[in-house]
Amino acid sequence: MAYPPAAHPSPARQPSVKVILTAADVPRVVDRIAHQILEKTQGAADTVLLGIPTRGAPLARRLADRISTFEDVAVPAGVLDITLYRDDLRRQATRAVGPTQLPPGGIDGKRIVLVDDVLFSGRTVRAALDALSDLGRPASVQLAVLVDRGHRQLPIRADYVGKNIPTSLAESVKVTLAETDGVDEVKLYGGTPL
Hints:
Layout: E1 17-21, H1 25-40, E2 47-51, H2 56-71, E3 77-79, E4 111-119, H3 123-135, E5 140-148, E6 160-164, E7 172-176, H4 178-181, E8 185-189
Parallel strand pairs: 2-3, 2-4, 4-5, 5-6
Antiparallel strand pairs: 1-8, 7-8
């Protein structure tokens, strides 16, 4: 008696992965943002860069280094932890509170540039604005992001954008940096399966 050939299950379809920025692209994008900050702030006078953890902190340090290289101006860079200001604390697993590190001289009367890796719903930036209001009174607040992927839930817009990436809600953007992940790269996951 002959049996029909066994059906071979098709391999699981993996979501597509597209590299948006390579290790060579990321430094160029950071340089472009640094030049834009210098231009828009008239040489970065009275400017403080505050990175939002995790990847915003090393991006803020990179921007400060590049501004110093381009214009020989020392721009203070710090870290702004927003953990206790997030609106999803009750829905997420417990997370450790990180240190907020303000540069000497604080933020009062300064132009603050918040720095983050991806701008999505705007909720992280809202939390950062709340955190800032507890630390002092800056003269103004601007936002610099490596990637803007759209889909805002709050009326927030970045002043400096490295790359605009139109996405669907089914897609996700993953930024890796040498300081935190060993490599500079931006990838888009999801969308049409391979």
